[in-house]
Amino acid sequence: MKVEKTKLDGCVIVTPPRHGDNRGFFSETFSTRAMEQADLPSNFVQDNLSRSATKGTIRGLHCQAPPHAQAKLVRCLRGSILDVAVDVRHGSPTYGEWVAVELSDENGSALLVPTGFLHGFVTLTDGVDVFYKCSDHYAPETEMSVRFDDPDIGIDWGISADQATLSGKDGEAGSMAEFVTPFGPDGGPR
Q: Per the residue annotation, which of 68, 90, 95, 132 is the catalytic one?
């Protein structure tokens, strides 16, 4: 398993090896042992699958507050996405900074988004399936969100707001200036 650091501490790209032959390929996409050997979290309790029909669909930016904060291991099973993580850990030297990584069925990579980060993605193709492992169960009462096109964050999604397909909830998300982070510098409770 290849692990690449990003500019945000704890947010890493994980790429498992693929073993190919004339039939296609085989890849072990998750192993608790491999994650632990790489000193990465492996305590995932819930798997989610989202399907987006059209290119330009944006989901995010979301997180769950403690005590139900979620680390996520995000992988694109079909099509491709630009996956984004934003550091919202109070006191972090990279607070408000973001990383974007292209994940696709072709590259097989995953992005590990630790607790203390907002997460979102934009679909780069039609017909996209995104699979993600979560370290805590869904708890709607702890959901928090920031608008995807917030100027204080300044994410380059590759499309304008009027081209994006959003849920009503994501379209009504608040600003980064209004966001009060519940996370301390280590991603735990503040």
A: 132
In a domain? residue 23: no
Does residue 148 form part of some domain? yes
- How would you class 77 by CB atoms within 10 Å of its CB: exposed for 0-12, middle for 13-18, buried for 19 or more? middle
pTM (predicted TM-score): 0.95
Task: Indicate the Cα dihedral angle 174, 46, 113, 103, nearest 10°.
Answer: -100
For 68-99, the pLDDT digits (tens) are 999 999 999 999 999 999 999 999 999 999 99
Read off the DSSP letter of residue 141: G
Structural domain of residue 119, as residue ranges?
43-171
Q: Which of 19, 62, 95, 119 is catalytic?
A: 62
What CATH number is associated with residue 149? 2.60.120.10
132 is catalytic: yes
Q: Is 123 a member of any domain?
A: yes
